[in-house]
Write a structure and sequence with these properties.
Number of domains: 2
Strand content: 35-45%
Number of helices: 4
Helix content: under 10%
Largest sheet: 5 strands, antiparallel
Shape: globular
CATH superfamily of the largest domain: YVTN repeat-like/Quinoprotein amine dehydrogenase
CATH architecture of the largest domain: 7 Propeller
Radius of gyration: 22 Å
Length: 437
């Protein structure tokens, strides 16, 4: 059921004044009786009343409240690129600042989008470090961004999709190229500041160790993996972060990889419908759980509060508590889930059919948001930009409105803006879709 003003949560300030939805805001913050949700969603920092009294639990409550209400405020603003940019399907996204957004594309371009959503927005292409191994015939693209615990190193794609590039962040100066896969690198996660683990299409799990920052190693240098294990019977492709447990995460399509630094465990998931738990110290398998049969197991998220893996497939969401173990199956409203983003107890779901929906993981029910089109609980992505090449003209009906799959989602640092990126659903078509909500 959609929430209105009568449902607004009331939080009591340390001074004793309740926060509700009746009074207006002023420049210095909410005073007396005012809506915290409206204050934060308007783009302001956490109210000074909370900062002054150092209430981390209350700040967490505000964050959760904003995550709950945010879907009811969304309006799509498409971002368009020039013909010269020649971008094809956005697979990965990462906000550096509210004015700088990193994008990774299927045609292997690392893009810095400046001032997204503004009239003066422009793109800058970041050079990728060269690889010394032979490039594969089939292109792959850049599938993930993974920031190290200190925020100084960024792992992402490079010239060869089988390798991983390490950059100084936020300068995006190349430092290293990691080698170890015989096929595409799909996802990666930092086990600590100098140890990166990654998942590949060659069914393997690889681990690299980097020298501490400031040592004598200079770029370009190439580092082989110190561990390379056959993790699954099929490809291992996507990574997600447990932020509450100081872990690291990132997105893609057919398999997921997760690290939890609090207990020295991480998990992988593949199309073989298994979740495997690994010891991060010994890089050895310690447990295996099966998940229900379905096709297109393409994305995974980790929910911090309940410590559940959330797995997306063709028609379902599986919420898996590996400690019990318990599995909850929810039929998805999106057709072919391509991306998941957990923010508090609100899960954002990007579909292959170009739909965006939201699930409250506490109630395990979808939010019944009324969208601009009048639909209940299901936003639809805009038209994007489609390349009408020979493939389009030969095999597709010109009257068909091609849906744009949502391959990546990311909230900006303020938590107000949601970026969604992707491109045309059929794999043979080229094009790009990007929007701010």
């Amino acid at each position: 059921m959609a929430m209105g003003e009568d449902d607004e949560d009331v939080v009591v300030l340390p001074s004793g004044g309740p926060l509700s939805s009746e009074n207006e805001l002023n420049d210095s913050g909410p005073t007396g009786s005012v809506s915290l949700t409206r204050w934060v969603l308007a783009g302001n920092e956490t109210p000074p009343q909370f900062n002054r009294f150092h209430c981390p639990s209350m700040v967490k409550s505000i964050t959760q409240l904003v995550a709950q209400r945010r879907p009811y405020c969304l309006v799509e603003r498409e971002v368009f690129f020039t013909h010269e940019d020649a971008l094809d399907k956005i697979f990965a996204s990462h906000w550096i600042t509210p004015d700088q957004l990193l994008l990774g594309t299927k045609n292997n371009k690392l893009v810095l989008l400046l001032h997204p959503g503004r009239a003066d927005a422009r793109t800058t292409f970041i050079p990728l470090p060269a690889s010394r191994s032979k490039l594969p015939v089939e292109p792959s693209g850049i599938h993930f961004f993974q920031l190290s615990p200190s925020g100084r190193l960024m792992a992402t794609g490079t010239t060869n999709p089988n390798d991983i590039g390490i950059f100084l962040y936020p300068e995006m100066t190349p430092l290293a190229v990691l080698e170890g896969f015989s096929d595409w690198a799909f996802d990666g996660v930092w086990l600590d500041e100098c140890t990166l683990a990654a998942a590949g299409r060659d069914h393997s799990l690889a681990v690299w160790r980097l020298p501490p920052e400031g040592t004598s190693d200079t770029f370009p240098f190439f580092r082989p993996a110190v561990h390379n294990l056959q993790a699954h019977r099929n490809k291992v492709r996507e990574i997600k972060l447990d932020r509450g447990a100081s872990c690291c995460a990132l997105p893609d399509l057919d398999c997921c990889f997760l690290c939890c630094a609090d207990d020295g465990k991480f998990a992988t998931m593949g199309p073989d419908r298994q979740i495997k738990i690994w010891d991060s110290g010994t890089i050895s398998e310690v447990a295996v759980w099966g998940i229900p049969e379905d096709r297109d197991y393409t994305s995974m998220a980790f929910e911090d509060e309940t410590h559940r893996f959330i797995i997306g497939s063709h028609t379902h969401l599986c919420l898996v508590d590996h400690r019990a173990p318990m599995t909850t199956i929810i039929r998805s409203r999106s057709f072919g889930i391509r991306s998941l983003l957990a923010e508090g107890h609100i899960l954002s779901i990007g579909g292959g059919d170009g739909t965006l929906s939201f699930l409250d993981t506490r109630t395990e029910r979808f939010l019944e948001v009324t969208t601009p089109t009048g639909a209940r609980g299901l936003f639809t992505a805009g038209r994007g930009s489609l390349v009408r090449d020979d493939t389009w003209q030969m095999y597709f009906d010109p009257s068909w409105q091609v849906p744009n799959s949502l391959y990546t989602m990311a909230y900006d640092p303020s938590g107000r803006l949601l970026f969604t990126g992707g491109g045309p659903y059929p794999c043979g078509l080229k094009g790009v879709y990007a929007a701010l909500w």
